[in-house]
Amino acid sequence: MANDDVADDGPPDPQLTRDDVAKVAQLALLNLNDDELDRFTGQLSAVLDRARELQAFDVSGVAPTAQPYPLVNVFRPDEPDTVSAVREEALAAAPACEDGQFRVPPALGEQP
Amino acid sequence: MSTTVDPTAPTGPSALAESSVVAEPSVLPDGWELVIGLEVHAELATATKMFSPARNEFGGEPNTNVHPVDLGLPGTLPVVNAKAVELSIRVGLALNCTVQRCIWARKNYFYPDMPKDYQISQYEEPLNIDGWLELPSGSTVGIERAHMEEDTGKSTHVGVSGRIHDAGYSLVDYNRAGVPLIEIVTRPDLRGPEQAKEYVEELRSILVAIGASDGKMEEGSMRVDANVSVRPIGADELRTRCEVKNVNSLRSIGRAIIYEGRRHVDLYESGDAPIQETRHWDEEGGRTRSGRSKEEAEDYRYFPDPDLVPIDPSPEWIAEIKASLPVLPQQRRAALVAAGGTAAAVAIAVARDLDTLALAAIEAGADAERVLTHVANNLAVDGAADLNPAHLAELVSMETSGALSATQVKQVLAEMVSTGGSPTDIAAASGFEAMDTAELETLLDQIIADHPDEWQRFVEGEAKLQGVFVGQIMKSTKGQADGRVVNELLQVKKRS
Amino acid sequence: MSDHHTPADDSPIDDSPIDDSAADGRFVVDANPANSAVNIAAAVRSGARSATEVVEQYLARIAEAEPAIHAFNLVMVEQARAAAAAVDAKVAAGEDPGPLAGVPVALKDNMCTRGVETTCSSRMLEGWKPPYDATVVERLADAGAVIVGKTNLDEFAMGSSTENSAFGPTRNPHDPTRVPGGSSGGSAAAVAAGFAPVSFGSDTGGSIRQPASLCGVVGVKPTYGAVSRYGLIAFASSLDQIGPFANTVADTALALSVIGGHDRRDSTSIPEPFPPVLDHLGEGVEGLRIGIVEELSGHGLDGFQPEVLARSAEAADALSAAGAKVDSVSVPSTIAGLSAYYMIAPAEASSNLARYDGVRYGLREDGPNTASMMAASRTAGFGDEVKRRIMLGTYALSAGYWDAFYGRAQRVRTLMINEFEQVFNDYDLLLSPTSPCVAFPFEAKADPLTMYLNDICTIPSNLTGHPAISVPFGTNSAGLPIGIQVLAPLRGEVAMYRAAQALEEVAS
For the whole prediction, is pTM greater than 0.90? Predict the structure, then answer.
C-alpha cells in the first residue's frame, strides 16, 4: 500500500482487458452484458492510457494528499442527540421492512 | 513460627484453574506446536456511537438508536466521538503501546448489515502500536496494534420452516451500526488453548479496570477471533493460518483452537495443507467450518477516508490520560509477588479482587503463603473483601502459633467474614480456648486408662488404632483439640 | 444581520414581467438589476415588495419557459408559496426575515431537502425523500430564501453536459440545441432563464463553473471546506463543494455569506466564518498581481477555441487597465490535473456510491440472495457514466493497482498543491478561461474522454482546494457565452471577489 519509501513502481499493466473489466464489475456489484463489457473496456482503457502520464512525475518522498485543507483533531462531545432519530421516516422509505427491521433476501456466506 | 500446611485443606489452584495454569500439556500430535494470534473486538463504553450522536445502548427495539449517519443515508457525514478516542488511548496505554498520529480508512465490501457498504476503520497509521500484555502465568504476549473502528448492524436470518427449498430472508437492525469498537490484535505469540484463554481473561480484566469496556462476551461487547496455524516444534516459520470466528465463550476459544490445530496437523501429515481462509466455529458440532466458497482473499480496497481528518493526540493529552489510569491487574500481581506470594496464588487473589486485603495483612506481619492460601480456599465468599486486614493477620498468627486448630481457624474466619469481629473475640466467645497441652495430656491419660487393651495393641504396633484415641479426644473436647498436638502426645506416650 | 447589508441598487423597483425570449428561440433573460438577490432582499425586508409577489413572478416565468428548458426535476410550487407567506408574516410582525428574505432560489437535486424528492437525477433515488435537510438548505431557509425547486444534473454529479441525467437533459437558454454544461446544468440554466435570481450547485471538477461559463452566469466554487457538505449527496468527498450561481457577482457573494462558515456536522468544515467578501467587493484590483496560467491559455494544452482564448486575453488586458499587475505564469502540473482527477474522483465515488444497494432506500430489484439483489438494483439504478466511473474507481483502488493509480494520483496532487503554493507566493490571483469551449450541441461529445476534457481548466482547483469563480465575459460570434476564471489562494475569496467585480464591470 501507499508508502513514501517504496521504490517507484513501473508503469501499470498497459492493456486493460475485458477480463479485468468483468472482474471489477463483479467487485462493484454491477452486471454488464457483452456489449457493455466491450464498450466499457475501450472507454476505460482510454482513460487509463491517459493516466499513464502520471508516471512521468517524480513522486519520491512525496506524501499523498487525502484532503486539500489540512485539519486535525475534529471531534464531537459524547452527548446523545435523539432529536434526529429517524426511525419512522427511514422505515417508510425502505424497499421492504418487517417488524421495524429492513428485510432483505438471505445472504450467501458470512459477514467478512 | 512454623508454617506447616493444614493437611485437611485442598492444595493447588482452585476454581479459576483454567485461567492461571502455567504449563499446559500439548494438544497436538507429537512434534507439532500451535501458533496462535488473537483479535479481540471490544465495544467501548461511550454514551454515543463512534461517528453519530445516537445512543450506544444494548438491547432496545430494532432501529431505535439510529441517526441518519448510522443508516448511511445519502449526504450524511461522520464526526468522531472524543470519548471514544480517549478510551482507545487508555487501552493503548494500558497495553504499553505507542500512541501515535493516526488516520481513518475505509474498508470496502458489500453486506446488508453495513449501512454504507464500507466500514470506517484504521488500516495504515492506527492509533496504538507495538505494545505487550503480561499474562498472570508469567509469559508476555506482544500486541501488534489496537485500533478504532465502527461496528456493523445485525442481521437475523428468518427461515421459513417446513419448506426445503425456501431459503427464507433476513431482517436487519442497525442499532449496533456505528457503535465504537477497539480492535486489539496480538502478535502470534500464544502457544496453546489455555494460554489463549488466559490472555482473553487478562485483557478483559484490564479493559474493565480502565473503564474502556464492560467486556461481556455473552452480550457481544467483547468478541474474539483466533488466528491459528501450526508448525514443527523448533521451527520459527509461520505457516498458513486460518481465522476462526464465532468463538463466543472462553470454553469455545479453547475447543476451537484445539480442533483447528489438529485439523491443520492432519492435513500436513496426509501430504496436504490448509488453505488460508476464514472458518466458523460450530459449537454444537464441535468443529470449524469453512466460511467462504472462494479461495481469493476479499479485496477491501482500503484508502484514507476523505470525510475524516487525522487524529494527532498531543503529548499533554496522552500524559493526562496515562496519569488517570488505575492500578492494573499486572501491577497488583507484581506487588503481591514482591510481598512473598507465588505466581499462581497471586493470580487467584487478584482475580478475586482480594489482593488489597492480602497485601495489607502481609504488611501487618502475617505469613504471605498462609494468607494467600486462605484467600484461595476459604475466602471465595461475599464480603471477604471487607475483612479487616489486621484481623486476618491476627488470625494467621493464632494459626501458626497453634493457638487455634485448623478446624477452629476455618470457623473463626467464616464468622469474621459474616460478623466483622476480631479473631480473639470470636475464639473466646466460641470457647475456642487454646487447649493447654497439660490439660490435653491429662485427658489423654484418662482415655488411655479407659482403653487399656487398645492402648497395649497400639504401643505394640497396630498403628491404625491411633485413630481410636484421636477420635476419643476429639469427642470429649468437642473437636477443639489441635490434631497435631494430639498426635505428638500420642507418639511421645507410646515411646515412653 | 448587518453583515449582510449591501447597498441596494438605486434604480426604481421594476415590477414588470421579465424580458421574454428573443426571436431566435433563446430564452435568456436580461439581467434586470431589480431582479438581483441583493435588491429583492432589500425590497422585501423594507416592505417595498412582498415575498409572495416576488415568488409569483418567478413561478409564472417558470411555468412559461420551463417546458422548453427542463432546468428542474421538481418545481416546488406550494412549498415556495408557503415559504414566501412565512417571510411576509415575519416582515409584518416586525421580525427579522433574514438576509435573503423572499429571494427565490433553486437547488441542485443532490442536496437533501426534508420530505421533498432528492433524486440526483438517477433512477436509483427516484422518489426518495430525505428525512433531513442539508445544512445549506437549513441556512437558506433561516435566511428567508424561498426554495422554488430542485434542478436537473448529470446523474450523481458525474458529467459536464447534464446529458447524463436519467430524466432527460436540460437545454442551454442561449441556444436550446446546445448543452448548458454540467453537472449543475439545471441550476445554471435556471438563473440564465430567469427562473430564480440565485441557484446552487456542487463543483467537484468544475460542475458549477463550467456550466456557469456555458450559460453566461456567475458561478463560484469556494475554498474546500468553506461550505458544509452535510446533506450534499457525495460524489468525491475530497473534491465536492457547494456554491452559488447568479447573474451578478454581488449576489453570489451574498449567497456564500449566508451558506458558508463552520458546520460541526462536517468534519472537513473549516472552523472559521466565511471570509467577509461583501465588505470588500468594490475595492478594485489596483496593485493585485494576477498571473495568466500559460498551460490553460493555449500554451500547453490543446482544444481551446480561439474565441475563448481571445476573450481571455481581453479579460487580462481589462484587469491590467484597471490597475492590476498582469503577466503570464507557468504552472506545469495543471496538465496532469485531468489524469489525477480521473483516478481520485472515481475512486472516492466508487466507495461513496457503494451504499446504493437496494437495502435501506432507493431502487430495489429483487434477487434470490442479497448479493444478486444488490447487483440487480445497482445495474438497473445507475446509468452508463456512473457505472464507468464506479468501475474506474474500483480498479484504481484494487490490490496491485493501488500504488500505480490512486496512490500515485494523490501524490501528484501533492506536487500540484506545492506548485500552486509557490506560484501564490508571487501572485495574488490566477486567471484562465473557465472552459476551453463554448456550449456544444447535444451528443457532440459522446466519447467520455472527450467529455472529460471540458474540465481541464477547472479541475486543478478542486484538487488543490483553492476557491475559483467564473465570470461571464462576452460571447463568441454566435452569441454563445464565454466565462473567465479567477483563482485565489486557500481562503482568498476576498481578493478573488475584487477581481471578479472588476471583470463584471468591464464586461457590462
Answer: no
